[in-house]
Amino acid sequence: MPNAFDPYREALVVEQHTVWPDAYEDWSAGDRQRVEGLLHASPQEAAELDYVRQHTGFARVITVTPADLDRVSVT
User: Fold this and answer.
1) Where are the domains of the chain?
2) What is the 3-state secondary structure (H, E, C) of 8-68?
3) What is the rounded average pLDDT of the residues 25-30?
4) Which pLDDT score, from 0 to 100, does residue 74 have?
């Protein structure tokens, strides 16, 4: 189960990762990069957000969902 947005852990994020479902494997690298930038710019709005503890802080992991794509395609 994904975590909720956490301002404390967010302040300690040292890495950002994006998990793309197989349904989006045909997207170009440029399109993926653009969407990843938009998703990580507002992680509190991500449908599936997780934080992974690391030695130096946290890694933010966002799993792309259709709801996320609908949200960022408006901008």
Assistant:
1) 7-73
2) HHHHCEEEEEEECCHHHCCCCHHHHHHHHHHHHHCHHHCCCEEEEEECCEEEEEEECCHHH
3) 94
4) 65
